Amino acid sequence: MKTLALTGSIGMGKSTVAAMFAARGIPVFDADATVRRLQGQGGKLVPIIEQRFPGSTREGAVEREALSAAVFGRPEELAALEAIVHPAVHHERTRFIVEHGDAPALLFDIPLLFETGGDRVFDEVIVVSAPADVQRQRVLARPGMTAEKLDHILARQLPDGEKRARADHVIDTSLSLTETAAQVDEILAGLGLGRSA
Fold first, then answer.
1. Are 164 and 129 in contact, with CB atoms under 8 Å apart?
2. pTM of the full predicted structure?
């Protein structure tokens, strides 16, 4: 089994590219979606987060804005949150691997792959990338996003150029969806995985 990591800065098109891999029969583990599930209605991290960050949950789910406000610009609080979330995500990832033990390859969509040193455990690292102006335009179009929030997020992420330099494969998502999909097919063919769906 080949393990593939998919990463890239905010707004670079990870979700779109992950869906393309999934459509080709590659099981995808989405770290962000896992966090949302763990922090959503009835999620197992909800009471733990409420205990550490009082007032950050409501009606059995984490209030993302309230939690974000509790850690925004406070590195020690962010570290405390990560100490709760990261082990739980690791556990879910291990379960995912076991469940898909017979797959020829698995794709792991991990936004902060390089920042957490996680790239070393994967066979191949794929980075999605687009020009900075395209990235800003995409992200600032999201509900509730501001230039200040974006700058704060980018400050925590390795610069795009460094990610591209450390990648085994780079997918340019500023192109059309058809051209982006062709890059996915090229990577899979190069890995001997071909199109399985």
1. yes
2. 0.83
Determine, yes or no, domain membership for 197. Answer: no
* 179 vs 169: CA distance, rounded Å: 15
Segment 60-101, tens digit of pLDDT? 999 988 998 888 888 899 999 999 998 999 899 999 999 999
Burial state string for 92-116 with b = 16 or more CB within 10 A and e = fewer than 16: bbeebbeebeeebbbbbbbbbbbee
Quote the domain boundaries for residue 185.
Answer: 2-189
Total number of domains in the chain: 1
H/E segment holding residue 28: strand 28-30
Give alpha helix (H) positions in 100-146. Answer: 132-140
Q: Do residues 101 and 24 lie in contact, with contact meaning Cβ atoms separated by under 8 Å?
A: no
Amino acid occupying residue 142: R
* Dist CA 183 CA 197 (whole Å): 16
Can you say whether residue 78 is alpha, beta or left, with left for phi > 0 and alpha for psi between -120 and 50 degrees?
alpha
